[in-house]
């Protein structure tokens, strides 16, 4: 398997993009990534597109060919593959693109992710998102995503003493980071009291514990490391790519306060990269709900199990802390267009490793990690990137 | 890239499977394939699942993890990836699984395809299928899939003299083949007059020109060729795997009587396999409508452009002809559970190459081809298999 690097990146502004359709968003970001990499259409060997639910959100499947078409590549007839693993669809597209280059089957490959979520009512959107859980054994009985994560939060609080305030600190930190990110959906700073007094969604989770409904797209261009310097002055190496699965339904898990898919994917990724969690300077993790970030920083090995809440409270995951987590603002403040999130995470890590992250730049960042979760943990993807 | 072989196969009965859910169908076929290959769960490195629209048909996304879960593999946390390219999703799963093994990243990989289509009304199903076309520029203006293929048929008839009877001959042949296939949805033989007098769908296509709405699943197990004989007495080599894309909308095509995606994928596949169309003994091609098979046998290079109709009429694509096309009954008579079709095609070719196809066995078949199309030709996949 060959070494693979990221030679170009693009990301749209995240938010309610009512003036842009799904195809507009992905073409906007694709052009940005191609220009950043300085490649021509003719050089591109394949596309991988992460999208969770074009079928439900915009009544469009066959997203791979659609994107190749609207990117002006259909005349070249290049292979274009859509992959889906719910909210981890973007991370999965990055992994499949990585494997295509690593295997030697392709040289220049684009991994993109997109979701257009605001063309439907919030009820329809919530129902579409619920299709990431087990429809027959969870949703049919009334479970929604906030409810599933609320059950996880309750048990985590009871077993480990995680507090309501510590959950809120995740949102406060991510809004602080996000307000320095030009593409973020929200640029408002918030306080712990704002979170605790915001409307209840599923006890103990409140509206400011939840990531929003978002339109957006992101893209990265991959190449074999040995030719990456032809395209980029600062190619970023992908040191590891790992994927793991788990039961879709929470009730089939060994323990709902740990996402085993994250644990397995992280172990594989650290082994591939020959690194440990202590080596990671920056991480974009899957904070679909505030409890999600606490699980992530524990399950990835940054902090012992049960100590994610206190670590957050002590600022150890803020810019300047032990590991800067979600400098983009995370899913919470940057926004969560589900199919795009995994690629946006890579976009942010590349910006940081290049030293192009502006006001939120982490000084001397050398190694970064992305962590993208599907559903309540049925799928997890972990990538490790290096300057 | 390593040589890859198919060491196990499974396929459910196709039809209206009201007693089986999506997960039931894919587990049924997965167990059959694993038993056929004689592998254990622990040996499996990865799953690739083709599914077009679980979101629309059964309100379930995150199909990869769901299948790993219900196959009893979630405790092993193996990677499971859903891919989608409309009606070519199955062929795409086969290709991604092939690349995973060929690249050396994985050894034993399962490629499966599934669609559960009869839980919704036929109107909802037709609308879900229309998501394979360009929603904004075709469906919005009233186009349905039969209408798109009807336009292709009309121009093909006008330009090349293809007759109404020749279209019907495709259905007659495929029903004849299908009535010998135990898994087929239909076991009725039909005559040319039956087709011509069947209810009109989109002129000139009538109901017996159209593939049906079907539930079903199929799976194949892949391994590196150098260890395939440990598992199977008759491993079948995958000599080539190729994928190509084209514009989603018909009106953006160079010529609607040729599917350029098929032409490009076939060229790549024949080059990889170092073979020509004349070397193919059996082929499973994408006859979603009767005109689809005529396009396919021309675009794959079996017959010159415009001569697909006459070749069919002369029996050159029947069992015993130049190339036996759709011995399974094709999409028309065997059925078309869209995400499963590409894998069922490989299942049929493997049965034939093993000499296990019963009454419809093609004598001395050595090389077979599968051809799977997404939408009206936005994606095409071609695989070449050898005994």
Structure notes:
Two copies of one chain form a homodimer. Chain A has 387 residues and is of the alpha/beta class. Chain A has two domains: 4-121 and 214-235, Thiolase/Chalcone synthase (Peroxisomal Thiolase, Chain A, domain 1), CATH 3.40.47; 140-210 and 237-386, Thiolase/Chalcone synthase (Peroxisomal Thiolase, Chain A, domain 1, 3-Layer(aba) Sandwich). Chain A contains 14 helices and twelve strands. Chain A has a ten-stranded mixed β-sheet with strand order 3-2-4-7-1-8-12-11-9-10, with helices on both faces. In chain A, strand 5 and strand 6 form a beta hairpin. The longest helix of chain A is centred in the C-terminal third of the chain and has 17 residues, at 338-354. The first copy, chain A, is globular and about 55 Å long. The model of chain A has no long low-confidence stretch (mean pLDDT 96). At the A-B interface, helix 2, helix 3, strand 3, helix 4 and strand 8 of A face helix 2, helix 3, strand 3, helix 4 and strand 8 of B. Strand 3 of chain A pairs antiparallel with strand 3 of chain B, so a sheet runs across the interface. Chains A, B: Keywords: Isoprene biosynthesis. Chains A, B: It holds the Pfam family Thiolase_C_1. Chains A, B: Residues 242-387 form the Thiolase C-terminal domain. Chains A, B: This is Thiolase.
List the helices and strands and how they pair.
The structure is a homodimer of 387-residue chains.
Chain A: E1 4-11, H1 22-37, E2 46-50, H2 54-57, H3 63-70, E3 80-84, H4 89-102, E4 109-115, H5 122-130, H6 145-160, H7 164-178, H8 192-196, E5 200-202, E6 205-206, E7 216-224, H9 225-228, E8 236-245, H10 260-273, E9 282-284, H11 290-299, H12 308-313, E10 324-325, H13 330-334, H14 338-354, E11 367-374, E12 379-386
Helix pairs in contact in A: 4-14, 7-11
Protein name (chains A, B): Thiolase
GO molecular function, one term (chains A, B): acyltransferase activity, transferring groups other than amino-acyl groups
Domain Thiolase C-terminal (chains A, B): 242-387
């Amino acid at each position: 398997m060959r070494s693979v690097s990221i030679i170009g990146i693009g990301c749209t502004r995240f938010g309610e993009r009512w003036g842009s359709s799904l195809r507009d968003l992905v073409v906007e970001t694709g052009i940005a990534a191609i220009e950043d990499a300085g490649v021509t259409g003719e050089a591109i060997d394949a596309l991988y597109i992460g999208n969770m639910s074009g079928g439900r959100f915009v009544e469009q499947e066959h997203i791979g060919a659609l994107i190749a078409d609207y990117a002006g590549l259909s005349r070249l007839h290049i292979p274009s593959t859509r992959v889906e693993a719910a909210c981890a669809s973007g991370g999965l597209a990055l992994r499949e693109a990585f494997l295509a280059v690593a295997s030697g089957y392709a040289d220049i490959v684009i991994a993109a992710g997109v979701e257009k979520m605001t063309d439907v009512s919030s009820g329809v959107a919530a129902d579409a998102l619920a299709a990431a859980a087990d429809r027959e054994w969870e949703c049919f009985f009334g479970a929604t995503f906030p409810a599933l994560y609320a059950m996880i939060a309750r048990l985590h609080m009871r077993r480990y003493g995680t507090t309501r305030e510590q959950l809120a600190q995740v949102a406060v930190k991510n809004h602080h980071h996000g307000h320095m990110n030009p593409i973020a959906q929200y640029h408002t700073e918030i306080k712990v009291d704002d979170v605790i007094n915001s409307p209840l969604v599923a006890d103990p989770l409140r509206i400011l514990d939840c990531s929003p409904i978002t339109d957006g797209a992101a893209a990265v261009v991959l190449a074999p490391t040995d030719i990456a310097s032809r395209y980029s002055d600062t190619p970023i190496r992908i040191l590891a790519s790992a994927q793991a699965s788990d039961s879709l339904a929470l009730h089939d898990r060994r323990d709902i306060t740990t996402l085993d898919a994250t644990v397995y994917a992280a172990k594989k990724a650290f082994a591939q990269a020959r690194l440990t969690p202590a080596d990671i300077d920056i991480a974009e993790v899957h904070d679909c709900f505030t409890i999600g970030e606490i699980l992530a920083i524990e399950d990835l090995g940054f902090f012992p199990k049960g100590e994610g809440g206190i670590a957050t409270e002590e600022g150890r995951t803020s810019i300047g802390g032990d590991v800067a987590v979600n400098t983009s603002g995370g899913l919470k403040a940057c926004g969560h267009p589900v199919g795009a999130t995994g690629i946006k995470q890579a976009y942010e890590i590349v910006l940081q490793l290049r030293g192009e992250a502006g006001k939120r730049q982490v000084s001397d960042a050398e190694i970064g990690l992305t962590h993208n979760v599907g559903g309540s943990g049925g799928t997890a993807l972990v990538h490790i990137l290096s300057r």
